[in-house]
From TrEMBL:
Chain positions covered by the region annotation Disordered: 1-24
UniProt name for this protein: Formate/nitrite transporter family protein
Topology term for the membrane: Multi-pass membrane protein
Transmembrane domains' residue ranges: 46-71, 83-103, 124-149, 173-193, 205-224, 244-266
Entry-linked InterPro entries: Aquaporin-like, For/NO2_transpt
Species of provenance: Aquimarina celericrescens
Keyword hit for Membrane: yes
Location of the protein in the cell: Membrane
Keywords (A to Z) from UniProt: Membrane, Transmembrane, Transmembrane helix
Chief place of localization: membrane
Length: 278
């Protein structure tokens, strides 16, 4: 009896569904479900996770310092910043794959249950506050460690730290705000794209592409920027606490606007009605 070539008809329906890409409504359902799980976490759990993210994202800063110091003498300044875009994603990969809570990644995600009327806006602000405090606290600790250990190891000096900090602070606050909006937009998209990624390799690639764009364009990220500017604050007489606070507040507001308006709100309005469960 001759055998016939297998066709898609021979594949069980559930298997074909598993292999099919997720629809917009399925991604939205998954995002809302993931966000609701975060709302159920305790305050201490969120603080610890976000503190861990603040520490881990610091490896991007350390690598930027190392690369800047290495290429500074033989490469133009503009080229150095583009080279840094290749190492900028490292900290983000550690944070995202390690499931730590980063403010800019969570901004749009945590807004979805509020839009969906499954959570209150007061709870959203509570979570945002916890994540920001944890991220900034972790960033300050890794900043202090980096500023101490870099010169001790001879991989970069304080002049490199100051140079990076001044580069971040160079634009005026309006430019930083708009830049931060774009960075928050991209980070919100990162969360959305990761939900539709089904393997570790694809997730790493998505993280690398999104964050390398942020690094190459020089967009302002409030959590990495916190480490960069705070490091300058403790090493340079030219950078004041007012410079640090002005930058930090502006970058946080910009990142939040980008994630909420251009990702959470638009994605929700565009795709919520595709699903009968949302």
């Amino acid at each position: 009896m001759s055998t016939q070539k297998s066709t898609t008809k021979d594949i069980p329906e559930n298997e074909t569904q598993e292999n099919a890409p997720m629809s917009h409504s399925e991604i939205l359902r998954e995002q809302v479900s993931e966000a609701l799980d975060i709302y159920k976490k305790t305050n201490s759990s969120i603080l610890i996770s976000s503190f861990s993210a603040g520490l881990e994202i610091g490896f991007s800063f350390i690598l930027i310092c190392v690369m800047t110091a290495f290429f500074a003498d033989d490469t133009s300044s503009s080229t150095v910043w583009k080279i840094n875009a290749l190492v900028y994603p490292v900290g983000f990969i550690l944070v995202v794959l390690g499931k730590s809570m980063l403010f800019t990644e969570q901004t749009s995600l945590l807004t979805l249950p509020v839009l969906n009327k499954k959570s209150k806006i007061t709870d959203l602000f509570r979570l945002w506050s916890l994540v920001i405090v944890g991220n900034i606290s972790g960033g300050i600790i890794i900043s202090l460690l980096a500023v101490w250990v870099g010169p001790k190891l001879g991989v970069f000096g304080l002049d490199t730290v100051i140079r990076i900090s001044e580069h971040v602070l160079k634009p005026d606050l309006l430019v930083i705000l708009v830049s931060a909006v774009l960075a928050g937009w991209l980070m919100g998209l990162l969360s959305w794209l990761l939900t539709s990624s089904d393997s570790t390799i694809s997730r790493i690639l998505v993280i690398f592409i999104i964050t390398a764009v942020i690094g190459a364009v020089g967009l302002h990220h409030s959590i990495v920027g916190n480490i960069e500017v705070f490091s300058g604050l403790i090493t340079s007489d030219q950078i004041t606490i007012i410079d640090y606070l002005s930058f930090q507040i502006t970058a946080i507001i910009g990142n939040a606007i980008g994630g909420v308006v251009f990702v959470a709100l638009l994605k929700y309005k565009a795709f919520a009605y595709d699903s009968g469960t949302i």
